[in-house]
Design a protein that fits this description.
- The structure holds three protein chains of three kinds.
- Chain A is mainly α.
- Chain A has helices spanning 41-69, 80-115, 123-142, 161-164, 167-196, 209-240, 254-271, 274-288, 295-308, 324-336, 338-352, 361-384, 386-392, 396-426, 432-458, 473-503, 518-521; strands at residues 428-429, 505-506.
- Chain A starts with 40 loop residues before the first helix and ends in an 18-residue tail after the last helix.
- The model of chain A is unreliable at 1-26 (pLDDT under 50).
- Chain B is of the alpha+beta class.
- Chain B has three domains: 54-90 and 104-133, no CATH class; 140-284, Immunoglobulin-like (Sandwich); 298-410, Cytochrome c-like domain (Cytochrome Bc1 Complex, Chain D, domain 2, Orthogonal Bundle), CATH 1.10.760.10.
- Chain B has helices at residues 2-9, 12-21, 24-35, 54-87, 104-132, 170-173, 270-284, 312-326, 328-331, 349-352, 355-364, 379-390, 403-411; strands at residues 140-147, 150-155, 160-164, 196-199, 204-210, 215-219, 224-228, 234-238, 244-250, 262-268.
- The model of chain B is unreliable at 1-26, 35-43 and 287-303 (pLDDT under 50).
- Chain C has two domains: 1-72, Orthogonal Bundle (Helix Hairpins); 74-286, Cytochrome c oxidase, subunit III, four-helix bundle (Four Helix Bundle (Hemerythrin (Met), subunit A), Up-down Bundle), CATH 1.20.120.80.
- Chain C has helices at 16-35, 41-69, 75-114, 153-177, 180-212, 219-251, 261-286, and strands at residues 4-5, 8-9.
- In chain C, helix 4 (153-177) runs antiparallel to helix 5.
- Chain C is globular and about 70 Å long.
- Classes of the chains: A mainly alpha, B alpha+beta, C mainly alpha.
- Chains in contact: A-B, A-C, B-C.
- Chains A and B meet through helix 2, helix 9, helix 10, helix 11 and helix 12 of A and helix 1, helix 2, helix 3, helix 4 and helix 5 of B.
Chain lengths: 539, 412, 288
C-alpha cells in the first residue's frame, strides 16, 4: 500500500523531484481521471477554483439576462416567473457556487503551505467536500427544466411564497442541504488543519492573516450552516408533511422562518467577506514592503466581527413589524460592526503608510477593494438605521449595498488572490498589462452598473421586479450597459489565467519582493505536488 | 416539451428587437443629461422623494445626516490612503519603514472615534424609531389586506371596503415575443383602479395583513414600509401633511406579479375626504367592512345586479375586461397559458365542459396551486368572465353564464 | 511513502467520496421526485441512492478501520480526529438549536401574538394557550389532541438514556483498564438500553397517534414535538447502530487501552444525544 509510518521511513528521506519512481505513482499527477479520487490538497484546491470560476460565469450570465430584461421598461425577454427564478438562482449560485468554493479552493492550496503542513488533516473528506458540490449543482441547474421551473422565491426562500413553489423548489432545498454538508465538512477539515497541523514553532499568533480569517470563517460556517439546514428542513416538512412551523393557521409564523434564516444569513455574509479580508491582508503588506500594521488587532477585529454577526440578523427584518425594543437592539448591534471593520480598514491604510508601494495587478485590486468595500460598508450603515431602512428596505439601494460588498469585496478579493498566487501555483507569470486592463475595466464598469442603483433605491424602485415605472428607466439603462461591460471584462481574466498557465513567463520562487509567508520563502514555484513532508524549520 | 417551454420563456429574437427598438430619443436625452446641462438633472431622481409626513421628514433628515458624516469619513480616510499611495510609492524611491507596524495608541484612537460617531448617529435614530412605532391615538384606521396580486382596503368605522388593482393594461406592458402594442402612459405600472384616500393632517393607522404570501405595503413619501404577513396583523401609521397623490409598490417578492402590485394613496382635504367616504359607501356598500372572520373577502358589491340577464355579446364584452384585469397574467391573452405551470384555457376540458365545474374552479380556486379563489369578484364579473372564456379562442360552446348561476353556486 | 509525514497518515486516493456523491445525487433526485409523487422513478432513484450510500459507508469505514487497526494513525492523527469530532458535534448542536429556537419562538412569540388584541380581527376567539393546534386547525373537534404526559414513558426514557450514559462510561473505563469482558458487557448494555429507548419511543408515537390524536399535523405543537423528538430519535438510532459496530469491533479485539478514538467518538456522540434528550424532556414534555 501506498503509505508508511514514521518508524519505517524517516520523513526527511523524501525527494519530491522524482516522486514518480516510488511505489505510489497513484499519488502523483497522472491521468486526468485522478480528479475523481485525488486526496492532494493542491489538486482539490484547483478543482474548487475551476468549479467556482465556471459557476461565476453561469451566475453572471443569469445576472446579464436579468439586466437585459431591465434594460428598458416593459416585458421583452423574460416571463416574470423566469425572471424571479433567475434572481433566485443567480444569488444561490454566486454565493454557494462561486464565492464560497473559491475561498475553499484558496484555503486548500494555501493553508497547508502557510502553516508548514504536508496536506489537509483529512484528505479523503476533502475530496468528498468538493465532489458533493457536483450533485448539488446538477440539482440546481436541472430545476430550471422541470415543470413549474426553478425556485422563484428569492434566495431568501421566505414562506409562504416558497410553499407555493413546485418540484424545482424541492430540488433547490435539497441542493442547499448537500452544499451545506459540503461546507461543514470543508470547514471541519480546515479548522482541524489549522489547529492541529501547524509546523513546530508556527504559533497561532504567527499564522498569516489568511489562515486566521479562515479559522474564524470556518467556525462561522460550522455554527450557521446547520441552522440553515434546520430552516429549510422545516420548509420541506411544511411543504410536504403538513407541519405548521410557518403557518399562522397552525400557530406558526412566517416570520419565524426569517429569524432562523437570517440567523444563518447574516453570519453568511461575513463568511463571504472574511477570507477576502485575509487575502487582502497578505497582499497589501507584500506590495507596501512592510509588515501588516496591527496584526494582533486585526485578529481581534476579525473575531469581534464574527461574534457580533450572530446578534444582528434582525436588520433584515425591520419591516416585519417587530417591537421597537427589537429594532433598537438590532440597530445598535449592527452599527457596532462598523467599529472592528473600521479598525481593519485603518490598519490596511496604515500598512501602506511609510511603505514602499508598487502597483502590480493584485495590489490594484486590493486598493479597489478598500475604496469600494468601504462604500458598501457605508451604505450598510445607512441601512442599519431603522427609519432609513424603512424607506430603503427591498429597494435597489439594498441591491447596490450588497453588490458593493460582494463584487469589489468578495470577488475582487478573490481576483487579487488569483493574480497574487498564480505564479506560485503555476510557476508562470500572468500578463500585467492584461491584468491592469481587467482591473480598470472592472472598476469603471462596476461603478457604472451599481452606483446608479443607489439612486434607484432612494427613488423607491423595489427589487426583484422585471419591469418598472418610467422614472426609473434612465438609471436602469445605464446600469444594464455597465453590467454588460463588466461581464465581458471578466473574459479578460479567464484569458489571462489560461494563457498564464499555458505560456506565461517563468516565475521566481519568491515572485514578489515583499512576500514573507512560507509558500514564498520556503517553496519553489511552481510548488511541487507534495510539500512539507518534513516540517519547515521556523525561527 | 420542456424545452419548448423554456424557449418560450426566453425569446432571443424578441430581445434583439427590443434593443433595436428602444427609443433613441430617450437615450439621447440621457446622454445629453449626463454630458450636457446640469439643470436637466432635476428630472432624474437621485435622492429620497420629497417627504410629506413627520416621520418621512425625519427619515429624510437622518439619511442626509448619515450620508454627510459618511462622506466626510470617506474623504478623510481615502485622502490618507491616496496620500500614502502618492507619497510612499516605490517608483518615487520610497523606503519602507518596517518598524512602523504597531501602535497601541493609534489603535485605541481609531476604535474610539468611530464609536463616538456611531453614538451620535444612534441618538436621533432612536428618537425616530420610538415615534415611528407609536401607533396610539389614530384618527382613522384602515385595514390593508394584500393578496396575489392586489390590495384590499377596509375602512372599519365607515363600514366599507374595496379592492385596488393595477390598471395599466397589458397592451402597454407587452410579453416576451409579443411587444407592447400601446405606448406606455405617464403612470405606467403605478396606476390603480381604485385609489385609497385619506384625510390630510390626520393620524392614519394601518392594520396590514395578507391573504396568501408576504407582501410589503410601501409608500416611500409616507414613510411606511410594512410587510403584510398572512395570519398576522401588524400596524404602522402616518400623518400626511400635504394634499396630493403618493405612489408606492409592493416591496416584498410575492410571486409572478410582484412587480405589478402598485399602491396609490390620495391625501385629500377634510371636506373632500368626507365626500369620498360618502361616495365610497354608496359604491362599495355596507356590510363589506372589516370582517371578524378569516373567510374569503366578500364579493365586491360594485355594479352588482344579480338579476341581470346577459346576452352573449354583452357578456363577452364585459368578460374580456375582467379577463384582462384578473386572468391574463397566468392564462395569457391568447388563452394558451404557460404550460405546465399555467394551463391553457383555450381547449381546456373544464372550460368547454359543464358550467358548474368551471364556476366551482372560479369560486373555490384549486387549493395548493396558483389558481386562487376568485370569489371576491362579483357575480356579474364572474359570469361575464366565464362566458368570455367559454366563447373565445378555440372554445365555441355558445354557453352563457348568468349572474344568477353564480349567486346560486355561492350558496352551496 | 509520501503518504506520511512525521508519521501523520495522509490517505491515498480513494474512490469512496465520488461513490458517496453519486449516492447523494440519486437520493436528491429521488427525494425531490418522491415528495412530488413522481413514481415509480422517485422511489427507484431513492433506493438506488440509498444502496450506494450503504455501500460507500461500508467501504469507507471499513478502510478507516483497517488503517486504524494496522497502526497507521499516530497521536497527531488522533488529535485531528478529536478536533473534528468536537466540531462535528458542535454543528449538530446548532442543528438542534434551530428546532429548539422554533419551539421557543412559537411559545414565546407567535402563539401569544395570534391571541392578542390586534389579531383578534383575524382569529376571533382564539385561546392562545400552549399546547395549541393553532387558531384555524383548532376549530374542528376532530383535531383536538392531548399532550403527552412527561411522567410516564418520557421519564422512563430519561432514566434509560441516563443509565446508558453510565454504562458507556463504564465500558470506557474497562477499555482503559483493558478488561475486555467488562468492555463488551458495558457496550452491550448501552446498546440494549438505546434500542429499548427507541422501542418505547415508537410505542409512544403510536400511542400519541391513536389515543391522543397528536399528529405531525397537529399545528405547531405537533410540528415541534415530532420534529424535535423525531430528529433526536434518528440520532439515537445512528448512535445505537454505531455503538453496535463498536461492540462488534471490541469483540473482534479492536482498539487498545491507549488508542481507541473510534470508541470515544461514538461515546461522545452518545452523550451528546443524551444531553439533547434532557433538553427535550424539559422543554417539550415537562414545561408544556
Ligand atoms: C459581503 C457581504 C456583506 C457585508 C460585508 C455586509 C456588511 C454590512 N451590511 Fe449588509 N448585506 C449583504 C451583504 C453584506 N453586508 C447582503 C447580501 C444583503 C441583502 C440580503 C438580501 O436581502 O438578499 C445585505 C443587507 C443588509 C441590510 C438589510 C437591508 C434591507 O434588506 O433592508 C443591512 C441593514 O442594516 C445591512 C447592513 C450592513 C452593515 C452595517 C455592514 C457592516 O459590516 C459594514 C461595516 C463597514 C463599514 C462601516 C465601512 C468601513 C468602516 C470605517 C471606514 C470606519 C468608520 C466608519 C464609521 C464610524 C461610520 N446589510
Ligand atoms: C457574490 C455574490 C454576487 C455577485 C458576484 C453578483 C454579481 C452580479 N449581480 Fe447579483 N445578486 C446577488 C449576489 C451577487 N451578484 C444576490 C445575493 C442577489 C439577491 C437575489 C435575490 O433578490 O434573491 C443579487 C441580485 C441581483 C440583482 C437584483 C435582481 C432583482 O432584485 O430583481 C441584479 C440586478 O441588476 C444583479 C446583478 C448582478 C450583476 C450585473 C453582477 C455582475 O457582477 C456579474 C458579472 C457578470 C459576469 C461575471 C458574467 C460573465 C459572462 C459573460 C461575459 C457571458 C459569456 C458567457 C459565457 C462564456 C458562458 N444581482
Ligand atoms: Cu405583493 Cu410583492
Ligand atoms: Cu445582514
Amino acid at each position: 500500500m501506498a503509505y508508511t509510518n514514521s518508524t519505517t521511513a524517516p520523513a526527511s528521506a523524501h525527494d519530491h523531484s522524482h516522486a514518480d519512481g516510488h511505489d505510489h505513482d497513484d499519488h502523483g499527477p497522472g491521468s486526468w481521471t485522478r480528479i475523481f479520487t485525488t486526496t492532494n490538497h493542491k489538486d482539490i484546491g484547483s478543482m474548487y477554483l475551476w468549479f467556482s470560476l465556471f459557476m461565476f460565469f453561469v451566475g453572471g450570465s443569469m445576472a446579464l439576462l436579468m439586466r437585459l430584461e431591465l434594460f428598458q421598461p416593459g416585458l421583452q425577454v423574460l416571463q416574470p416567473e423566469l425572471y424571479n427564478s433567475l434572481t433566485t438562482v443567480h444569488a444561490l449560485i454566486m454565493i454557494f457556487g462561486a464565492v464560497m468554493p473559491a475561498f475553499t479552493g484558496f484555503a486548500n492550496w494555501l493553508i497547508p503551505m502557510q502553516i508548514g503542513a504536508a496536506d489537509m488533516a483529512f484528505p479523503r473528506m476533502n475530496n468528498w467536500s468538493f465532489w458533493l458540490m457536483i450533485p448539488a449543482a446538477i440539482l440546481l441547474f436541472a430545476s430550471f427544466f422541470v415543470p413549474g421551473g426553478a425556485a422563484a422565491s428569492g434566495w431568501t426562500l421566505y414562506p409562504p411564497l416558497s410553499i407555493q413553489g413546485g418540484l424545482g423548489l424541492d430540488m433547490t432545498i435539497l441542493a442547499i442541504h448537500i452544499l451545506g454538508a459540503s461546507s461543514i465538512m470543508g470547514s471541519i477539515n480546515i479548522i482541524t488543519t489549522l489547529l492541529n497541523m501547524r509546523a513546530p514553532g508556527m504559533t497561532l499568533m504567527k499564522m498569516p492573516m489568511f489562515c486566521w480569517t479562515w479559522l474564524i470563517t470556518a467556525y462561522l460556517m460550522i455554527a450557521v450552516m446547520p441552522v440553515l439546514a434546520g430552516a429549510i428542513t422545516m420548509l420541506l416538512t411544511d411543504r410536504h408533511f403538513g407541519t405548521s412551523f410557518f403557518n399562522a393557521a397552525g400557530g406558526g409564523d412566517p416570520t419565524m422562518f426569517m429569524h432562523i434564516f437570517w440567523f444563518f444569513g447574516h453570519p453568511e455574509v461575513y463568511i463571504l467577506i472574511l477570507p477576502a479580508f485575509g487575502i487582502v491582508s497578505q497582499i497589501i503588506p507584500t506590495f507596501a514592503r512592510k509588515p501588516l500594521f496591527g496584526y494582533a488587532s486585526m485578529v481581534y477585529a476579525t473575531a469581534s466581527i464574527a461574534m457580533l454577526s450572530f446578534i444582528v440578523w434582525g436588520h433584515h427584518m425591520f419591516t416585519v413589524g417587530m417591537p421597537a425594543a427589537g429594532q433598537l437592539f438590532f440597530m445598535y448591534a449592527t452599527m457596532l460592526i462598523a467599529v472592528p471593520t473600521g479598525v481593519k480598514i485603518f490598519n490596511w491604510i496604515a500598512t501602506m503608510w511609510r511603505g514602499s508601494i508598487s502597483f502590480e495587478t493584485p495590489m490594484l485590486f486590493c486598493i479597489g477593494f478598500l475604496c469600494m468595500f468601504t462604500l458598501g460598508g457605508f451604505s450598510g450603515l445607512v441601512l442599519s438605521i431603522v427609519p432609513v431602512d424603512i424607506t430603503l428596505h427591498n429597494t435597489y439601494y439594498v441591491v447596490a449595498h450588497f453588490h458593493y460588498v460582494l463584487f469589489p469585496g468578495a470577488i475582487w478579493g478573490l481576483m487579487a488572490g488569483v493574480y497574487f498566487w498564480l505564479p506560485k501555483f503555476t510557476g508562470r507569470m500572468y500578463s500585467e498589462t492584461l491584468g491592469k486592463w481587467h482591473f480598470w475595466l472592472s472598476a469603471i464598469s462596476f461603478n457604472i452598473t451599481f452606483f446608479p442603483q443607489h439612486f434607484l433605491g432612494l427613488a423607491g424602485m423595489p427589487r426583484r421586479i422585471p419591469d418598472y415605472a418610467l422614472q426609473f428607466a434612465e438609471w436602469n439603462m445605464i446600469s444594464s450597459i455597465g453590467a454588460f461591460i463588466l461581464g465581458f471584462s471578466q473574459l479578460l481574466f479567464v484569458w489571462n489565467v489560461v494563457s498564464c498557465i499555458r505560456s506565461g513567463e517563468k516565475a521566481k520562487a519568491k515572485q514578489w519582493e515583499g512576500a514573507d509567508s512560507l509558500e514564498w520563502t520556503h517553496l519553489p514555484s511552481p510548488v511541487p505536488y507534495h510539500t512539507f513532508e518534513t516540517a519547515p524549520v521556523l525561527k | 416539451m420542456q424545452k419548448a417551454m423554456n424557449m418560450k420563456f426566453l425569446n432571443i429574437k424578441a430581445c434583439c428587437a427590443a434593443i433595436k427598438n428602444y427609443s433613441l430619443a430617450r437615450f439621447s436625452t440621457l446622454l445629453l443629461t449626463i454630458f450636457g446641462s446640469t439643470a436637466a438633472w432635476a428630472d432624474y431622481d437621485v435622492n429620497i422623494l420629497p417627504p410629506v409626513t413627520p416621520i418621512s421628514n425625519q427619515i429624510y433628515g437622518l439619511h442626509m445626516y448619515i450620508l454627510y458624516v459618511c462622506a466626510v469619513i470617506f474623504i478623510i480616510v481615502f485622502a490618507m490612503m491616496f496620500y500614502s499611495i502618492f507619497k510612499f510609492r516605490k517608483s518615487a524611491g520610497a523606503k519602507p519603514d518596517v518598524n512602523f507596524h504597531e501602535s497601541t495608541l493609534i489603535e485605541i484612537i481609531w476604535t474610539i472615534i468611530p464609536f463616538i460617531i456611531l453614538i451620535a448617529m444612534a441618538i436621533p435614530a432612536t428618537k425616530t424609531v420610538l415615534d415611528m412605532k407609536d401607533t396610539s391615538n389614530p384618527d382613522l384606521t384602515i385595514k390593508v389586506t394584500a393578496y396575489q396580486w392586489g390590495w384590499r382596503y377596509d375602512y372599519s368605522a365607515e363600514d366599507f371596503g374595496f379592492y385596488s388593482n393595477l390598471s395599466t393594461p397589458w397592451s402597454q406592458i407587452g410579453q416576451p415575443g409579443s411587444p407592447a402594442t400601446e405606448a406606455k402612459g405617464k403612470d405606467y405600472l403605478l396606476e390603480v383602479d381604485n385609489i385609497v384616500v385619506v384625510p390630510v393632517n390626520k393620524r392614519v393607522r394601518l392594520l396590514v395583513t395578507s391573504n396568501d404570501v408576504i407582501h410589503g405595503w410601501y409608500v416611500p413619501q409616507l414613510g411606511v414600509n410594512q410587510y403584510g404577513i398572512p395570519g398576522f396583523i401588524k400596524d404602522a401609521w402616518f400623518k400626511a401633511e400635504k394634499i396630493g397623490v403618493y405612489k408606492g409598490q409592493c416591496s416584498q417578492i410575492c410571486g409572478k406579479l410582484h412587480g405589478y402590485m402598485p399602491i396609490t394613496v390620495e391625501v385629500k382635504s377634510e371636506a373632500d375626504y368626507a365626500k369620498w367616504i360618502k361616495d365610497g359607501q354608496a359604491k362599495w356598500g355596507k356590510g363589506a367592512a372589516l370582517t371578524a372572520s378569516n373567510s374569503a373577502p366578500k364579493a365586491d358589491a360594485a355594479a352588482e345586479d344579480s338579476a341581470k340577464k346577459f346576452t352573449l355579446a354583452e357578456a363577452k364584452d364585459h368578460g374580456e375586461k375582467v379577463y384582462a384585469a384578473n386572468c391574463v397574467a397566468c392564462h395569457q391573452l391568447t388563452g394558451k397559458g404557460m404550460p405546465p405551470a399555467f394551463p391553457a384555457l383555450s381547449g381546456s376540458k373544464v372550460v368547454q365542459g359543464p358550467m358548474d365545474a368551471q364556476i366551482g374552479v372560479l369560486l373555490n380556486g384549486r387549493p395548493g396551486t396558483a389558481m386562487q379563489s376568485f370569489a371576491r369578484l362579483n357575480d356579474t364579473d364572474l359570469a361575464a368572465v366565464i362566458t368570455y372564456t367559454k366563447n373565445s379562442w378555440d372554445n365555441n360552446t355558445g354557453k352563457i353564464a348568468q349572474p344568477s348561476d353564480i349567486k346560486a353556486a355561492r350558496k352551496i | 511513502m509520501s503518504a506520511t509525514t512525521g508519521g501523520y497518515y495522509f490517505a491515498p486516493p480513494s474512490k469512496w467520496p465520488i461513490v458517496g456523491s453519486t449516492a447523494l445525487l440519486f437520493m436528491g433526485v429521488g427525494g425531490a421526485m418522491t415528495m412530488n409523487q413522481i413514481q415509480p422513478y422517485g422511489w427507484t432513484s431513492l433506493s438506488i441512492g440509498f444502496v450506494i450510500l450503504v455501500y460507500m459507508l461500508f467501504g469507507w469505514f471499513g478502510q478507516v478501520i483497517r488503517e486504524s487497526e494496522s497502526g497507521m494513525y499516530n497521536p497527531q492523527v488522533d488529535a485531528s480526529f478529536r478536533w473534528s469530532m468536537s466540531w462535528f458535534i458542535f454543528s449538530e448542536i446548532m442543528f438542534f438549536a434551530a428546532f429548539f429556537g422554533a419551539l421557543y419562538y412559537a411559545r414565546a412569540f407567535s402563539v401569544p401574538w395570534l391571541g392578542d388584541l390586534d389579531n383578534a380581527l383575524i382569529w376571533q376567539g382564539y385561546d392562545a394557550k400552549w399546547p395549541t393546534l393553532g387558531p384555524y386547525i383548532g376549530q374542528t373537534a376532530s383535531n383536538q389532541f392531548g399532550a403527552m404526559s412527561p411522567w410516564g414513558i418520557p421519564l422512563l426514557n430519561t432514566v434509560l438514556l441516563l443509565s446508558s450514559g453510565v454504562t458507556v462510561t463504564w465500558a470506557h473505563h474497562a477499555m482503559k483498564a483493558n478488561h475486555r469482558g467488562q468492555l463488551v458487557m458495558g457496550l452491550f448494555l448501552t446498546v440494549v438500553l438505546g434500542f429499548t429507548f427507541l422501542g418505547f419511543q415508537v410505542y409512544e408515537y403510536m400511542h400519541a397517534y391513536s389515543e391522543l390524536n397528536l399528529k405531525l399535523t397537529s399545528g405547531v405543537f405537533g410540528s415541534t414535538f415530532y420534529m424535535l423528538t423525531g430528529f433526536h430519535g434518528f440520532h439515537v438510532t445512528l448512535g445505537a447502530v454505531m455503538l453496535t459496530v463498536i461492540m462488534f469491533r471490541c469483540m473482534k479485539g479492536h482498539f487498545k487501552p491507549n488508542q481507541h478514538f473510534g470508541f470515544e467518538a461514538v461515546s461522545w456522540y452518545w452523550h451528546f444525544v443524551d444531553v439533547v434528550w434532557l433538553g427535550l424532556f424539559l422543554f417539550v414534555y415537562v414545561l408544556v
